[in-house]
Amino acid sequence: MRLISNWCALAAAVAGTWLLAAPGNAVGNQATAPASLQPYTARYQVSYRGLNGGEIESSFKRGAEAGQWQYETRVFPTLLARVAISSQAHELSVIQATAAGIRPLSFNFDDGSAGSEKDVRLDFDWKALTVTGTFEGKPVSLPLTPGTHDTSSVQAAMIQELLAGQKPQGFKIITGGKLREYRYWPEGTQQVMTPYGQVEAEVWASQRTGSNRVTKTWHAASLGYVPVQAIQYRKGNPEVQMKLVRLERQANQGLGDGG
Question: What is the pTM of this model?
Fold first, then answer.
């Protein structure tokens, strides 16, 4: 997996979980909102194999329709990291919150280059139950079943289950242009230092079937199960790490700029 893929995949695995974790007043139709949703902008420090890679910024805002949200991730790589990842790379995912849960509507990844051969475009048609689009120049056409997610929407589903007191065991996620099974399991709790002081966090691990990579995410229950850090391991060795450095929300939400 290229460095840019590691960055963006882990960004979704961490920052995407702010989606349902932010406390506040629900918007749109109360009957269709599984949990309170609130706009935010968050930054994470990223390191790759111990080297500073820069920062990732994720923003979450309301969409054009009630219950619809847009989740966007942008990167701010160091000069060294720009060899592997463009400062113009970004992801945009449109997500819908319904009474039945979270479901993706579209997913777009632009690697920041002039061409589109490394980009990803996915459209989720819940009436026709199909996912169509392109992955790095190759066409994608997959059957769509309830519970199918992209790498952003699955984080919303994860938080929804945690807020409901559930213990998720796995999700179906579209990665690499294919539908893949991911196993999830808890690994206890740990104390983690954050910009808001030391918090107790639940540690959750996930792994794709057949992969030698494991991603661990630290969810802080006191912050609404907000992830405070994540580490992706390859063959047991830490490869990519993200740590929360700043969160911006509406002033009346209690948590402001952590910097």
Answer: 0.78
